[in-house]
């Protein structure tokens, strides 16, 4: 399945079990006001929701930051990360997804959970937004495992001014690949925390120019 800027069919998304035949499935939200709610995952080959253990680790890192937060998920996929943030108190979440089936599943999930606080956009993550938007407190990057996408997304965030001064970026990438933020084109980032689950790693980052000691 060809996609502008990247190709999900050739990649292995993060976490969970792959769905090579595009059978879809469900993802469970693990905490907050939508705890234990199960959402459908689009039958897109290679689409793999971030595992519950990894999500729990991430949001433990972010304790105290979710209430009232603006959250952007640049490669939304199943929406597991963004909807978990919503469940844990985020004020507004924006999910960017280019695949038609995944986009439709995200819209349906958003309409069930909280349509007033969810914005689902079908777009190329590296070409969004066309116009200036308010910066985000948390940006999620979990792209298909294709060359350079995570590093390109980090550069895109800085170029477009998408991250609030004290904001955080969570980035997932294949464990055998170099750290995306170390790529020269990615810009200047500070690594705050890191975890590993199976064949993927997850890192919590801050823009280096705004970095303080606090996570």
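^ Assign residues to that structure.
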């Amino acid at each position: 399945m060809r996609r502008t800027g990247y190709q999900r069919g050739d990649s292995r998304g993060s976490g969970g079990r792959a769905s090579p035949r595009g059978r879809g499935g469900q993802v469970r939200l693990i905490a907050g006001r939508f705890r234990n709610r199960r959402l459908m995952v689009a039958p897109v080959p290679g689409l793999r929701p971030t595992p519950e253990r990894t999500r729990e680790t991430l949001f433990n890192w972010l304790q105290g930051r979710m209430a009232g937060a603006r959250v952007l998920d640049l490669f939304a996929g199943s929406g597991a990360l963004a909807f978990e943030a919503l469940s844990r108190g985020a004020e507004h979440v924006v999910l960017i997804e280019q695949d038609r089936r995944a986009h439709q599943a995200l819209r349906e999930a958003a309409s069930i959970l909280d349509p007033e606080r969810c914005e689902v956009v079908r777009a190329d993550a590296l070409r969004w937004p066309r116009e200036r938007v308010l910066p985000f407190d948390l940006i999620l990057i979990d792209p298909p495992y294709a060359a350079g996408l995570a590093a390109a997304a980090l550069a895109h965030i800085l170029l477009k001014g998408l991250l609030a001064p004290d904001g955080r970026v969570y980035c997932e990438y294949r464990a055998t690949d170099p750290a995306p933020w170390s790529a020269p084109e990615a810009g200047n980032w500070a690594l705050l925390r890191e975890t590993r689950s199976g064949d993927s790693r997850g890192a919590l980052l801050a823009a280096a120019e705004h970095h303080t000691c606090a996570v």
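The helical segments are 52-61, 80-87, 100-113, 149-160.
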